[in-house]
Amino acid sequence: KATTIIDADICMCASWELLKMARHFMKSFYGGGGMERSVNKVNDHNFVTQIVFDYKIPTFKPREFVQRVVWRWEDATTLLVAAESCSSEAHPVRPSFVRGSASVLAKFEQVSIGEIPQTRLTWFQQPDLGGRIPKKLVDRAAVSQMMYASRMRKAFDKSKEVDAASMAD
Q1: Is 57 helix (H, G, I), strand (E, B) or coil?
Q2: pLDDT in tens, 71-106
Q3: Are strands 46-53 and 2-6 parallel, antiparallel or unpaired?
Q4: What is the mean pLDDT of the chain?
Q5: Is the Cβ–Cβ distance between 98 and 62 less than 8 Å?
Q6: Residue 55 near residue 63, CB atoms below 8 Å
Q7: What gap in Å lies between CA 24 and CA 29, rounded to an integer?
Q8: What does the DSSP assignment read for 79-138?
Q9: Dist CA 135 CA 140 (whole Å)
Q10: Residue 119 confidence (pLDDT)
């Protein structure tokens, strides 16, 4: 579980979460070991995403994850996003990859702290990389995934603006 405050309104955070094929995501994805990524829209609140990631561990095959992602607004200030591994005719199991699985729940809550709109992100994740992997390597991969909240916080960081506003008071 990770919880952090993002210096952006909830709509900006929702866009960040739901636009995985955006250029800035794809650049960091491929630069960090990503091999394939696709998103198939089912409807306005449901899509299936597929990623293949090479953890650069000698003798280990790349890991493939196929997940159904659903999202909904609880109210005007709370967004829930859930992802669960699934099977998909569009993404059959391939022998060149090991199929991993993961469950993810992200809760975005609009909060009011001063003049700058902010959002509290609570992120839960339970990954299974598939196959037989030493615990040390699984933990390293899990930490990398949990850094998602930190990457989002850094992308929207407005610390200078917040500090300037408090110094003016």
Answers
A1: coil
A2: 999 999 999 999 999 999 999 999 999 999 999 999
A3: unpaired
A4: 86
A5: yes
A6: yes
A7: 9
A8: EEEEEEE---TTS---TTSEE-EEEEEEEEEEEE-SSSEEEEEEEEEEEE--S---HHHH
A9: 9
A10: 94
Say which amino acid occupies 119: T
Distance CA 167, CA 169 (A): 5
Q: In the predicted model, what is the mean pLDDT of residues 63-77?
A: 95
- Report helix, strand or coil for 51: strand
Report the pLDDT value the prediction gives residue 112, as an integer from 0 to 100.
76
- And the tokens for 163? 């500090």
Entry field: residues in the chain:
169
CA angle, 145 then 106 then 128, to 5°: 40
What pLDDT, on a 0 to 100 scale, did the predictor assign at position 169?
59
- List alpha helices for 5-102, DSSP H: 10-18, 23-31
Helix or strand or coil: residue 152?
helix
Determine the Cα–Cα distance for residues 85 and 100; give it in Å rounded to an integer. Answer: 8
Q: State CA 118 to chain mean position distance.
A: 18
What percent of the chain stands above pLDDT 90?
46
Query: pTM for this one?
Result: 0.82
